[in-house]
Design goal:
heterotetramer, A alpha+beta (81), B alpha/beta (229), C alpha+beta (766), A: 81 residues, alpha+beta, Mth169, Chain: A, three-stranded antiparallel sheet, 31% helix, C: 766 residues, Phosphoribosyl-aminoimidazole Synthetase, Chain A, domain 2, seven-stranded mixed sheet, 28 helices, 25 strands, globular, disordered N terminus, binds adenosine-5'-diphosphate, binds magnesium ion
Chain lengths: 81, 229, 766, 81
């Protein structure tokens, strides 16, 4: 049993339209000093079998499906249970 | 009898709603800018559909924090009529003026299509021109149209006749297959407890002429206008 | 920046640019030499970058310009007032429709979601920059077969991207087309089209008149995205393009929707002298094109440009293709009023310079002059090349392929169902349900019929729009295929009751530097130029996308046509589904009939280029079906007249899959069967599946048949009664033998589930 | 200066349509033993001034804007710089 958290974020050089709107909304609410907001994704995966090269498998899953390498970066954590 | 149509940055259903009131109801109508708090003097306020603030973060989340929504909260507390359509429904839920939330469609895709809804309540200011059980053909267009609320809120919705519209098949049967987005109890539209605030995902303001595929939306618009007479 | 002083600065002491550097940017030695001659010195790094994009095929049309002159409106514009962002088509009542189609092919092969999205955004900007309010989008999409996971991914993401942008902006996507073929596997086509309504007296132009007038940059902040996108669009896709991936542009439809409202409001004031959106080549393109058109210059300070990142170089700022930006030239003294409008809509706006009278684009980085180039040399003097074209060697063999030995299939029901399941023919509901097609509340005929029909608020008349192109025909004969694209577009309009008034084209071709590729391009344009004038649908705008090939394969030549038509009374519009049981099914045909026959003379050859041949026999060969433009036009005339008199209940043209598929589509859409009897002097496969041109299936109430006959006689069109609608089965009997007998529900499920079924084989990424 | 990561996830009792689609896709790709997938959001905020009760401020921001309490849970990390 393993619980994997994959964190997917937009590459820093790309425009994050969503983050911009959230930042504007926070400013409108009166919060000052907000220098930047970026919105990304978490994908939490539960895997029955944590044996073997689970890092490699997760990395493969990220590249194949979860992450768009043209626009996104990723990192992940594995919590074996 | 004066209608107001709220304009948020990026909301795009404002023109449809405005035109429907002009062309179909032939009533006076004015835009209300999202920064305005001057909402008195309107007999009904429409919070239109269509992607305020780009639907970013969660549809309706950013718009629900605007000054106009604060003002509308006070207006509604005093019995003022408010109808939120599509994104307007999402805004009203986000603002807490209606219970529940609208979640991502069960197939995780945007869906635009004419669907059928069954009228569940014809006592309201938004539906008294319909009969209970009547089927309306209306368009939906959303990515997050799946209505959800927790069990504690769902019961009163049902028992207090606060469900306005439910997705159904052409013959009016509320079935699993007729649910386009996974909404709880096939809910397409609801009322608040007091009955003066309504929200719905289908767009009555776009179905106002047979030439557009349906004029069933006129029943809802006329319900609002004529109750006010 | 001392922009108010006499501009005495100039650039001196420049060193030669290394050939590797300018070649990497896409310039050749002769072009570099021409630049040094124009400038009288070596260019700066920023200047070479500016020339490289402006002189790329994408911006400078260096290979295609001589050919595009075949289009009358293009020639007139180039020789006259200049090209504008979109063409405008008069629809009467003081109104025009601004319309344009454009490709986003190369970026889509790399990053389909964002590229498709920004394709839509760019098209919309071309429309509202003219002062037109966008009312509809369409698209034309081509991918490799859906059996391949990569193709499914590209298809799914491109569709989602188009939906994302259009749905959020709130402009309905009312139509389009989708084709699948192996030739698009490495090189998909994503063409986006948009149209808007405009009053003729309020058209805005891309000009920079009036020295001293302030120059404003409007919209999103400038980032490092998309630098050299235009150059990228002008090379073949290769391994190397993988490394250019990071220049994807991100679309922000929310920013666009505010930009639309703010721009239209600003234009209403009358104080905007000129305005140009920033597409390819960003600030470079908009500054040089507007000033070149007005015989003026522009001086800007790039430090005034709001940027997303620190440390951007002048080169990067001048070439950035960040989306949702515009350049505006405003009457001096009125800038505050204009700025206030953009501020109200929360759209960023800055004054970055002013118009000059010296016909130069001056670019300052603060106090330092980093580029100083004659506007016209950038915008208009891109060298053009007359390339050599040669008919491809394989073509004669394909055209003369002997189809006479083809065996007739055993089971026509089975063939029909297999054709209905071909994703290019099958229902596109999976696609168009992801697009908001009812936004703005004017869509009268929704996707799923032949052409989309829109009402225009306050008018009795309506408009119809459609996109069309059969790439396989163009591959077998680019001239004929291009003409059929125009004829079919016009025919689809006629099926809705509309007469064509104008067209736009997206010319998707392979590498023009190869003689085969150039020949295809030239022949297709010749075909289009002749046909569009013949059908009264002059091409008013368009776009060229070349180099659509991989080392393995070039795409079929694909000149996508977007066409606009007018319906005098929108209440009389017609759609394709059978409406009621007991109606008479009639075939209108422009094809010659022999004495005593009720179907056109058809030979084996008329199966040439057909979907039947492709799907059932695995053959792409023969000649595309013959087109007689005069006969075709007569069919349209008869149809439009009969529809305007309310005589016709449904109309659907025969295209891919032939008569049988067209009949099935009218049955499925109407949920009604039909009992059809025809006679033919050819094998049933040709009678059922040949894609003979100029044919339309209509249904009429029995009592109106006589009136319909009068109209068709007057227009000299063939009219054959084929049967009646009704029941739950579609039956076709040929020469007294029943060859097709299938339940409509079964046809429906084949046709409707084909694309969703293929797409279910994969899942969506997130 | 502080960098805040807010993690927003759907309440566990709610059906996560997107997670289900991702799970299906992974299964189609041949990965076995995937017991569950849930998709959430990360909001990264950069704040100039990390003095005072920054936890309280972030919590407020979450409740006001970043999170819909009807459907979502959240947690956050603050990295002072
Ligand atoms: N990419 C698309 N976007 C929107 N609508 C589409 C798209 N592709 C097809 N459609 C719609 O689906 C219907 C059928 O398309 P198609 O099979 O190409 O028709 P036809 O054979 O008449 O050209 C048309 O209404 C068309 O506008
Ligand atoms: Mg057609």
């Amino acid at each position: 049993m393993a619980k994997v958290n994959v964190y997917v974020t937009l590459k820093p050089e790309l425009l994050d339209a969503q983050g911009k709107v959230v930042q504007g909304a926070l400013e409108n609410l009166g919060y000052t000093g907000i220098e930047g907001v970026r919105v990304g994704k978490i994908v939490e995966i539960e895997i029955a079998d944590a044996a073997g090269n689970i890092e490699g498998k997760i990395d493969e899953i990220c590249r194949k499906l979860l992450v768009n390498p043209n626009t996104e970066d990723y990192r992940f954590e594995i919590e074996k249970g | 009898m004066k209608f107001g149509v709220v304009q948020f940055p990026g909301s795009n259903g404002d023109q449809d709603a405005y035109n429907a009131v002009c062309d179909v109801l032939k009533q006076p109508v004015e835009y209300i800018w999202h920064k305005s708090t001057a909402v008195d003097g309107f007999d009904c306020i429409i919070i239109p559909g269509g992607a305020s603030y780009g639907d970013y973060l969660r549809p309706g989340a950013v718009a629900s924090l605007s000054p106009v929504i604060d003002a509308i909260r006070g207006y509604a507390d005093q019995g003022g009529r408010v109808i939120g359509i599509g994104n307007g429904f999402q805004i009203l839920c986000e603002a807490g003026l209606l219970p529940g939330a609208l979640m991502t469609n069960s197939n995780v895709r945007f869906k635009c299509s004419y669907i059928s809804v069954r009228v569940e309540n014809n006592f309201s200011d938004f539906s008294h021109k319909c009969t209970v059980g009547q089927t309306l053909s209306l368009p939906i267009e959303d990515y997050q149209g799946s209505y959800y609320c927790n069990a504690d809120e769902l019961k009163p919705l049902e028992s207090e006749n606060s469900i306005l519209l439910r997705y159904c098949d052409k013959s009016g049967k509320v079935t699993y297959d007729a649910n386009p987005n996974g909404s709880a109890l096939n809910i397409a539209g609801i009322l608040n407890e007091a009955g003066n605030v309504a929200g719905m995902m289908p767009h009555p303001e776009r179905a106002v002429d047979d030439i557009l595929g349906s004029a069933d939306g006129v029943l809802i618009l006329k319900s609002i206008a004529q109750r006010l007479d | 920046m001392k922009i108010n002083d006499e501009d005495t600065m100039s650039i001196t002491d420049t060193k030669p640019i290394k050939p590797e550097v300018y070649k990497e940017m896409g310039l050749n030695d002769a072009e570099y030499k021409a630049i040094t001659e124009t400038l009288g010195r070596h260019p700066t790094y920023t200047e070479v970058g500016m020339y490289a994009v402006m002189w790329s095929e994408h911006c400078g049309y260096k290979y295609s310009r001589p050919i595009l002159r075949l289009f009358k409106k293009y020639r007139e514009a180039i020789d006259g007032a200049g090209l504008e962002n979109a063409g405008i088509i008069d629809i009467g009542d003081g109104l025009g429709i601004a319309m344009k189609i454009e490709s986003h092919n190369h970026p889509s092969a790399v990053e389909p979601f964002q590229s498709a999205a920004t394709g839509v955004g760019g098209m919309l900007r071309d429309i509202f920059t003219m002062g037109a309010r966008p009312i509809a989008c369409l698209n034309s999409l081509r991918f490799g077969p859906l059996d391949d996971a990569r193709n499914r991914y590209l298809f799914e993401q491109a569709v989602a991207g188009i939906g994302f942008y259009g749905n959020v902006v709130g402009v309905p996507t009312v139509g389009g087309e989708v084709y699948f073929d192996e030739c698009y596997s490495g090189n998909c086509l994503v063409n986006a089209m948009a149209l808007g309504v405009i009053r003729h007296d309020s058209v805005a132009y891309a000009r920079a008149d009036g020295p001293g007038n302030p120059v404003l940059i409007i919209g999103s902040h400038t980032g490092r995205d998309g630098i050299h996108g235009a150059t990228f669009a002008s090379v073949e896709l290769s391994e190397e393009s993988e490394s250019k991936k990071s220049n994807v542009q991100m679309g922000d439809p929310f920013a666009e929707s505010a930009l639309i409202e703010a721009t239209l409001e600003a234009l209403e004031t009358g104080y905007v002298v000129g305005i140009q959106d920033m597409g390819a080549a960003g600030i470079t393109c908009s500054t040089c094109e507007t000033s070149a058109k007005s015989d003026t210059g522009i001086r800007i300070d790039i430090r005034k440009v709001p940027v997303r990142e620190t440390g951007m170089t002048p080169y990067e700022i001048m070439l950035s293709e960040s989306q949702e930006r515009m350049l505006a030239i405003v009457e001096k003294g009125k800038e505050d009023e204009i700025i206030a409008i953009f501020k109200k809509w929360e759209v960023p706006v800055e004054i970055i310079g002013e118009v000059t009278d010296d016909e130069l684009v001056h670019v300052y980085d603060g106090d330092e002059l980093v580029a100083q180039v004659p506007s016209k040399s950038l915008a208009e003097d891109a060298p053009t090349y007359d390339l050599e074209g040669r008919e491809p060697d394989y073509l004669a063999g394909l055209n003369n392929y002997d189809l006479s030995g083809l065996a007739e299939p055993d089971d026509y029901n089975d063939v029909l169902m297999r054709l209905l399941e071909v994703p290019s023919i099958a229902s596109k509901q999976w696609v168009y349900e992801q697009f908001d097609h009812t936004a703005l509340g004017n869509t009268v005929v929704l996707p799923g019929s032949d052409a989309a029909v829109l009402r225009i608020r306050g008018l009795k008349k309506g408009i119809a729009v459609v996109t069309d192109c059969n790439g396989r025909y163009c591959y077998l004969d680019p001239f004929a295929g291009a003409q059929i694209a125009i004829a079919e577009a016009a025919r689809n309009l006629a099926c809705s009751g509309a007469r064509p008034v104008g067209a736009t084209d997206c010319l998707n071709f392979g590498n023009p530097e190869k003689p085969d590729g150039f020949w295809q391009f030239k022949r297709a344009v010749e075909g289009l130029a002749e046909a569009c004038e013949f059908f009264d649908a002059p091409i008013v705008s368009g776009n060229v996308s070349l180099y659509n090939e991989t080392p393995q394969m070039a795409i079929y030549p694909t000149p996508t046509i977007g066409m606009l038509g007018i319906i005098e009374d929108v209440n009389k519009r017609c759609s394709s589904e059978f409406k009621a049981a007991g109606d008479i099914v009639v075939l209108l045909s422009g094809v010659r009939f022999d004495e005593g026959e009720s179907l056109p003379v058809c030979e084996r050859e008329s199966l040439g280029g057909s979907e039947y041949l492709n799907t059932i026999h695995g053959i792409v060969a023969g000649r595309p079906p013959a087109l007689d433009m005069d006969r075709e036009k007569r069919v349209h005339k008869a149809l439009i007249k009969a529809i305007s008199q309310g005589l016709i209940k449904s109309a659907h043209d025969c295209s891919d899959g032939g008569l049988a598929v067209a009949l099935a589509e009218s049955c499925i859409a109407g949920g009604l069967g039909a009992d059809i009897t025809i006679s033919a002097n050819c094998g049933p496969s040709a009678a059922l599946f040949a894609e003979t041109q100029s044919r339309v299936i209509v249904s009429v109430a029995a009592e109106n048949l006589g009136l319909l006959r009068e109209i068709v006689d007057e227009c000299r069109v063939e009219c054959t009664v084929m049967g009646t609608t009704g029941g739950e089965v579609m039956k076709i009997t040929i020469n007294d033998v029943e060859v097709v007998n299938v339940g409509v529900e079964e046809l429906d499920s084949c046709w409707r589930n084909a694309i969703p079924g293929k797409m279910a084989e994969t899942g969506v990424g997130c």
